[in-house]
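Sequence in, structure out. Go.
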Amino acid sequence: MAQSGVTLADGLKNVYEELKQKKSISYIIFRLNKEYTQIEVCSQGKKGASFDDFKKEMIDASMEGQGRYAVYDLKDEEDTSKNALGKLVFICWLNDDCLKIKEKMLYASSKDAIKKACDGLHAELQINDTSDFTLDEIKEKVLKGKKV
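Output:
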């Protein structure tokens, strides 16, 4: 349980293990439920889904005034240097332009619960602006060692 009292929905860890072990999905997007009591799986990117697919889902959520957490698997076709290949990146997406203070605070105070459940993460990023939500920015931060 997080400091905020938020818990994890049943099956959340199983979906994460599917990404981590089987590599059968490209990313997982999580959200707080409507009651702000649980973190649940919102969507999963099919194997081979692009960064643009992932980014669109995350930005669409913020346009509806919602934050998101995600675990994104940096893939070979997106990294020519191979240095960030296969790294699992935890992202907390709290768009400054779209979220209310209460929602930002709940997401910020609840993220430790999901990070603890997702062992084996390489890096953690918090993104608050669409201009920072680029694959190049994410790779740069991962390569600089923004450890979880």
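Check: Strands lie at 7-8, 25-32, 38-46, 68-73, 88-93, 123-127. The chain is about 35% helix and 25% strand.
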